[in-house]
Amino acid sequence: MTTNIPLLERTQYTPLSLPLFLSEVDSFKTALQTFESALTYLPQLHDEALASTEAPSAGSGSGTGQRLDAAIADFSQQSKGLKDMLKAMERDVLLTERDGEDLGEANAKRAHWKRCKEGLQTALGAFQNTERVYRQRLNDQLSRQYRIINPDATEDEIAGAVASGETQIFSQAILTSNRSASASSVARAVRERQQDIVRIEKALQELLTLFQQLEEAIVLQDPVVENIEHRGDEAARDIERGVQHLETGVVSARGARKKKWICLGIVIAILLVIVIIIVVVTLVKKKE
């Protein structure tokens, strides 16, 4: 029953084109449909688990419990995979909105992502409600089991025994019960149901965490976007420094060229002085 859900894991910082994004949306919807379809069989597994302890002689309790545990583990894996896909889609939406080149495309992506998110929230809500209903049915069954071994128990005593989650309370009641024939069956049923309750509490806590993560994805800045902003700022600073260096280089080049002209002028002046001196000396010698 385990389903491998493809994850949208990208390292590039360029948003997907709209057709590629819609392809990811279709993959998400397919995975969500698989999750929802499997979820429809969960109440049947609950019924079998409850029936196995209502009639312990059937001997199918452990097998049903194993199938139920495997189903819940698979649901947990699928829901986490769906959450990861949704966050990757949201990342792409944020990048597209930041790019800002096509507002229509950004709005279309956000609309599709929002519908996917709502679909996942609805499916997780259904999973959560199914587990809560099963938890209530377990409590009702434990109440009946306690009444079997302690018919004189008050409603408060029964409620306290069930709410405590302690098998020791049931064990003590079994030891003092005059219905030893059903005591062992009740003890096994109680142990199995307490394990189910622990598993349900864990599943509900994981679902609560998933709901929180989905909401956080809306308000928290995506690390990829933060990285882009950081790199963008660095690039802007690098460009600014480059412009400054270029301006400094231009000024230096202009200064160097000016100095070259000055040096050339000095050399020409010296040469002119030398030529004049030679001419004067020559003329003086001729007159002598």
From TrEMBL:
InterPro entries named among the record's database cross-references: SNARE (IPR010989), Syntaxin (IPR045242), Syntaxin_N (IPR006011), T_SNARE_dom (IPR000727)
Keyword Transmembrane helix appears in the UniProt entry: yes
Highest taxon in the source lineage: Eukaryota
A Pfam family the protein falls into: SNARE
UniProt record, GO biological process: exocytosis; intracellular protein transport; vesicle docking; vesicle fusion
Residue span, T-SNARE coiled-coil homology domain: 187-249
Protein's UniProt keywords contain Ribosomal protein: no
Keywords from the named record: Membrane, Transmembrane, Transmembrane helix
Membrane topology field: Single-pass type IV membrane protein
GO terms assigned for molecular function: SNAP receptor activity; SNARE binding
Gene Ontology CC entries for this record: endomembrane system; plasma membrane; SNARE complex
Family per similarity comment: Belongs to the syntaxin family.
PANTHER family named in the record: PROTEIN SSO1-RELATED, SYNTAXIN
Protein name, UniProt field: t-SNARE
